[in-house]
Amino acid sequence: MRAVLAFATILAAAAASPALQPEPPVHARTCSRSNKDNTLNNCIRHNIQAFIPHVKNGGKFGLPSLEPFHVPETSFDLRTGLIDFHAVMRNLTVYGLGDAVVRDAMADLGDDAMLMDVGLLLPKVSFRGMLELSGGQILELPFKGRGIFDFTFSDINATWRVVGKRQAGEEHLEVQSVTPTYTVGGMTTDIKLPDQGIPNLDRVINAVMNHYWTIMVDMGKAYVQKPISHQLRSVINTLFQNVPYDQMFPASWLAALLAGDINATWRVVGKRQAGEEHLEVQSVTPTYTVGGMTTDIKLPDQGIPNLDRVINAVMNHYWTIMVDMGKAYVQKPISHQLRSVINTLFQNVPYDQMFPA
Ligand SMILES: *[C@@H]1O[C@H](CO)[C@@H](O)[C@H](O)[C@H]1NC(C)=O
Ligand SMILES: *[C@@H]1O[C@H](CO)[C@@H](O)[C@H](O)[C@H]1NC(C)=O
Ligand SMILES: *[C@@H]1O[C@H](CO)[C@@H](O)[C@H](O)[C@H]1NC(C)=O
């Protein structure tokens, strides 16, 4: 069987368009929403990580570029008593989102509602653009200015809470909100204001902001979170509008199979003895390819601490080998079972009735 991959549908759509370059496949797995807890969460974590390189440089799957990522105009007020100003940021570009490592995922997937927390670690994220300061005051001295800025944050540990809902009768789930929360390990500010009237004002502002960077980060949360959250909602929603919810997260393994997620060929060989009414099924040989596999073994009493976690990690890493091994071991009993099931059918209906001459 060839598991047709949830995210691969977008690729298929992209490949169908002659204008687009052929895409490398997204090595995604089928994440069935009936798989609770770690199996589903690991599956989602794996797929998001596998998906990031495909959207990094943008223009694919109808999604905007992640690297860099553009944010509409936003503004903030700095009020420290030492320096106060109102800042408008334009042509804001974010660098570094493409280097995200998916820390973990926790999903609660219902038939019509989705709640997902995606944990991301970002080594470095820079916001660059144009800055206009107004209503400024430094030690009671008024100023205004215009220039460029670079705010760089390091060691970001973010959690994005994605909430979605599917209306009755709808194929697609709509993403209603994306709420990022995060902690930041450090921040540097580099503002250049060539024409601000006060000599070296930008250097003073940089020094103050670099000193009070934790305050800046807290302020940033209030001001930057809203436009970013808005942008993210639109990006993630595009993805969900491209792939039906039941295909992205099939209700069960069986549903995945029925939805065409699995591509198997069963070779059935039968023979009818002379004078017999019924055909006897002699063999059923399944062949298949698998697009993904997750292993979740729990060994509570194994003596060696975390042995099961190590085994799971190895098996999840070498899943293609596992699948190949599985073919040798699983194929025989499955083929045996299938032969018996299909044979029962042929024993119930005479061959000439099932397929008249
Ligand atoms: C906006 O930012 C991009 C990327 O940094 C830059 O190439 C472009 O020239 C900027 N546009 C304006 C109007 O400054
Ligand atoms: C990131 O934050 C989560 C949740 O707050 C925490 O459990 C985890 O240990 C943090 N990870 C790192 C690498 O800081
Ligand atoms: C299923 O597998 C067969 C044989 O390998 C192949 O010809 C066919 O294109 C596959 N179909 C899909 C939908 O992947």
UniProtKB/TrEMBL annotation:
Q: Where are the transmembrane segments?
A: none
Where does the signal peptide begin and end? 1-16
- One of its Pfam families is JHBP
- Please provide the record's keywords in A-Z order: Signal
Query: What GO CC annotations are associated with the protein?
Result: extracellular space
According to the lineage, what is the superkingdom? Eukaryota
Q: What name appears for this protein in its UniProt entry?
A: Uncharacterized protein LOC117641271
Where does this protein come from, organism-wise?
Answer: Thrips palmi (Melon thrips)
Q: Which gene encodes it?
A: LOC117641271
